[in-house]
Design a protein that fits this description.
The chain is mostly helical and about 180 residues long. Helices cover about 80% and strands about 0% of the residues. The protein contains four helices and no strands.
């Protein structure tokens, strides 16, 4: 235990008073002088109490072990903080890299989709052109074969619908005379 200067002085003075008290008490006991014995006890008791209190105070207030533990805990906390900051920086770098990779992948996907859309559009236009040419050829063939004559009813219609009848036939049914 380490004592401060004032505590050391108090313990030293108390130790000297204790020795004087022990000697006085022994002298009073040997000579059978009661006042000397009582005076010796009067010095022994406060001196020993003073020494005991100083030792207990030093023991109770000795914080060297706690300070060492606190310093070790603080060093450990600083180390953990450094590890945490390093891990946080690594995580941020990784997230940034992933964001860049995703942006590059999105750009590549967009470019691929644009190319694919143009290829599909060209294929669609070619198919549409081919279909329109085929439809036009069929229309020309039907016109040449006479299948598209407007006044003749179609042979497959057994019952003509009202909007397919000629004006003359409608007038006859309603018996309306026209000039």
């Amino acid at each position: 235990m380490r004592f401060t200067g004032g505590t050391r002085a108090a313990i030293t003075i108390s130790a000297m008073a204790l020795m004087v008290g022990v000697l006085a008490c022994l002298y009073g006991i040997v000579r059978n002088i009661i006042p000397h014995s009582l005076a010796g006890l009067g010095l022994i008791i406060p001196s020993s109490l003073t020494i005991a209190v100083a030792v207990l105070r030093a023991y109770a207030l000795d914080t060297r072990d706690e300070r060492r533990n606190l310093a070790a805990a603080q060093r450990q906390a600083v180390d953990q903080k450094a590890l945490y900051l390093a891990a946080q920086a690594g995580l941020e770098n990784e997230m940034g890299r992933q964001a860049r990779d995703m942006a590059a992948q999105r750009a590549a996907n967009t470019a691929a989709l644009i190319k694919e859309r143009e290829v599909l559009r060209a294929a669609f236009e070619a198919e549409r052109l081919q279909q329109s040419q085929r439809a036009f050829q069929l229309g020309v063939q039907m016109e040449r074969s006479g299948a598209l004559k407007p006044d003749e009813p179609l042979p497959a219609n057994l019952i003509p619908f009202p909007n397919q009848q000629s004006e003359h036939a409608r007038a006859r049914e309603q018996e309306v005379v026209r000039p």
